[in-house]
Target: tRNA N6-adenosine threonylcarbamoyltransferase
Amino acid sequence: MKVLGIETSCDETGVAVYDTDAGLRAHALYSQIALHAEYGGVVPELASRDHVRKLLPLIRQTLAEAGLGIEDLDGVAYTAGPGLVGALLVGAGVARALAWALEVPAIGVHHMEGHLLAPLLEDDPAGRPQPPFVALLVSGGHTQLIHVEAIGRYRLLGETLDDAAGEAFDKTAKLMGLPYPGGPQLAMLAERGRPQAFRFSRPMTDRPGLDFSFSGLKTQVLLAWRDSDQADRTRADVARGFEDAVVDTLAIKCGRALDAAGCDTLVVAGGVGANKRLRARLQAMAEQRGGRVAFPRPAFCTDNGAMIAFAGALRLQAGQHDDASVRVTPRWDMASLQPVASG
Ligand code: KG4
Ligand code: ZN
Model:
């Protein structure tokens, strides 16, 4: 089954074709980062308009790269939420219209389920991590530990009480004067920083529980940066101290979550999953425990169409689809999803 996936929930237009027999056939991404940079954040109306401009050309490009005609598609999957309502409606409208014209089923995918399943998307079905496992979702909007009892059955084990991990990266980068979007830039800077030059706390690791809090850490960095000489070398050292604190905190809680759920497999997804030090740290932890950790390739950690095509394909293949109305769900609890029958 060949499924077209469309992602337009925020500031990236992503398109891909996933084939349930042959795997990922092609994918393309257009990032609006430059468009929003001068405003220091995503401007929803500008995002919607840019999705309108870019989506159809990207669909044509992706199909051409896959060597497919539009009539070869057997289904369409699109991000139906959570996200910016106007941006979501662009993807949903195009997906629904295509499915209607081609007389194929279409399904609205939960954006975070897309992220969560991305670590599975490039394995062949036999080598894929099988539920139950624990997922760490770390993006600009979410920091969650989830017990994946089955595909589609998600139980929240812990989440952030304030800032998401990616948001903490972005805000910390901003307060040290790095350009938007700061997370990846801060991580690059941290590579040059000395470990232990600055030591920040590992929030909420001194007590039991699986929740996170990153806003206090950001304040600690702010104070340390203000009182420093603000030299380039210091900026790198502070970045390293901050990154180590976040990575350590995430790793400690992942270990606890695996214990709590009785699992030995961890999957990691979302933009912060692209962080090199986090990947190395979780890999080492998994090896030490005799378990396994799965990540998507870095390009599929951040928003993309491939994860939506894949998550949609699993559901369409199991016989699920939505009715023909164009509907999006800007706020959507993952626990309310339908499980996907395996087989
Ligand atoms: O999943 P994503 O693309 O968008 C959301 O749905 O939020 O994640 C974006 C987030 C941003 O906060 C960005 O700063 C962060 O992921 N991020 C990183 C890295 N690459 C992206 N954070 C730390 N290290 C990175 N290498
Ligand atoms: Zn995302």
Observations:
- The pocket of KG4 (ligand 1) is lined by residues 139-141, 166-167, 169-170, 181, 183-184, 187, 270-272, 274-275, 302-303 (CB under 6 Å).
- The radius of gyration is 20 Å.
- The first strand starts at residue 2 and ends at 7.
